[in-house]
Amino acid sequence: MQHNSMKLQTVAVSEELFADSLYSPQREVAVDAVVENSEPIWLRTQYEDSMELYADRHTVAQYLDHHQGWFRRCAEPMQTRLIDQNAYDLLIGRFGALGYAVEARVGLNLIPPDANGLYQISTVPVPGYTAPGYEVNFQSTMKLVERSVEEVIRTRRLKPTESPAVVTAAEWRLDLAVGIQFPKFVRSMSESLIQRTGEGLLDKIIKQVSRRLSHKTQLDFHNTLGIPFPHHRYR
Predict the structure, then answer these.
(1) Which residues contact 35 (CB under 8 A, 6 or more apart)?
(2) Whose CA is closest to 31, among 105, 122, 138?
(3) How many CA atoms, within 13 angstroms, populate the side-chain half-sphere of residue 144?
(4) Is 64 within 8 Å of 119 (Cβ atoms)?
(5) Contacts from 190-193 at CB under 8 Å and sequence distance 24+?
(6) Could you give the 3-state DSSP secondary structure of residue 68?
(7) Of 51, 203, 172, nearest to 110 (Cα)?
(8) Does residue 11 contact residue 92 with C-beta atoms inside 8 Å?
(9) Are strands 100-111 and 87-97 parallel, antiparallel or unpaired?
(10) Contact, 231 vs 218, CB < 8 A?
(11) What are the 10-residue block averages of pLDDT along the chain, 235 residues in total?
């Protein structure tokens, strides 16, 4: 794998993210050990989720706009580096299936909200770095929506002492495509098997990373602003 001057520590990934019987650690081939000129096979997934924050929309927007504070804290244990005012170099971790593994690293641009309050995140190049054997197209949108306090109390089964005065939800949608230049021994398998296994793994990675980042952001937001938050009731 190529490296620039920044040293990023690889994040270990829990074994549950690896495809069960199709993954064999004994025969794993690292991406930097394989030289392939073949066209990438594209894996695609979509994901939608939301997180609830106990404040009005303006307060939540102010917090999110100052992402140089919360983003790096909440992304841990993933390693991050600021590229420019709104972009980050993010080392997500090492992932594998079908006996093949890559160390996922991507540049993400956190675009400020437009006139309609729509946030966007998209991929950007990481200066001095070329991903070996794979490429990522990450496109995400997010909007802030105030929710009914009564509905939140009912669905979250909150106690009267835990009831918020106002709730704003950050709702987002992600469209992710990853193109991978698999080695010959993987390409000898059926493309349907490669797609099914790869996209299944991609779904698990996105869900785990998204839920962990959302939960840590919820905690960071409420702790930073001193707002009580019954985090034990959230995933």
Answers:
(1) none
(2) 105
(3) 22
(4) yes
(5) 191/41, 193/22
(6) helix
(7) 172
(8) yes
(9) antiparallel
(10) yes
(11) 37 36 37 59 95 96 95 93 95 79 90 95 95 92 95 86 92 95 87 90 91 95 93 50
C-alpha 163/C-alpha 156 separation (Å) is 10
- And the tokens for 204? 């698990």
CA 222/CA 197 separation, integer angstroms: 38
Q: Please name the residues in contact with 151: beta carbons below 8 A apart, sequence gap of 6 or more.
A: none
HEC profile of 29-60: EEHHHCCCCCCCEEEEEEEEEEEEECCCHHHH
Distance CA 128, CA 4 (A): 6
Rounded to whole angstroms, the Cα distance separating 41 from 19 reads: 18
pLDDT of residue 28: 44
pTM (two decimals)? 0.79
Tokens of 171: 């709702």
Q: How far is the C-alpha of 81 from the C-alpha of 137, rounded, in Å? A: 19
* pLDDT at site 231: 60
The DSSP line for 97-127 is ETTEEEEEEEEEEEEPP-TT--EEEEEEPPT
